[in-house]
Amino acid sequence: MRHAIAYRNAARPSSTLRLAGFAVLGSLALAASAQVALPFWPVPATLQSLVVLLLGALGGSRLGVASVVLYLAQGSLGLPVFAAGTAGPAVLAGPTAGYLLGFLPAAALAGLAGRGWARQALVLAAAHLVLFVPGVAWLAGFVGWERALAAGFVLFLPATLVKTGLAFAVLRAVRR
């Protein structure tokens, strides 16, 4: 009996290995969502924030953050995973870098969504808004504060509401 338990535990991948596997899948989902892009300037509109919210809310903060870190590493190494197939360290120094880095706290916060519907709605909305803080701040260095707020935040509010609502609906459906 002890040998059967030891064998079963040995055959089970470690939690670190599982996290790594899911993070790879999460980074691929982020890469795919980046390719669904409307070419706004200076920041394209993509489905990435929706995926970031879902990775954190469904997989937890660790998985969400690990997926984003892996995604950013893939893009910085030259894999065409950023919006519209862009890649390289220049993207992480360009106008969209703050949004990309904002995915980290957004994923971490979304991981705290919990089970109650009110908490989930509030946490997802807050997580979505959190990614705009470094995004707009970084963008302001390129286009000024007024333009950064208009083109990097206000323009995205309707889509942000829709994507937050979709994330909430998916989370509620999965948690039932």
TrEMBL record:
Organism the protein comes from: Roseomonas acroporae
GO CC annotation: plasma membrane
Protein family membership: Belongs to the BioY family.
Topology within the bilayer: Multi-pass membrane protein
Protein location: Cell membrane
Protein name: Biotin transporter
Membrane-crossing residue ranges in chain numbering: 44-61, 97-114, 121-143, 149-171
Keyword annotations from UniProtKB, A to Z: Cell membrane, Membrane, Transmembrane, Transmembrane helix, Transport
Tagged with keyword ATP-binding: no
A GO term, aspect molecular function: biotin transmembrane transporter activity
Pfam families reported in the protein's UniProt record: BioY
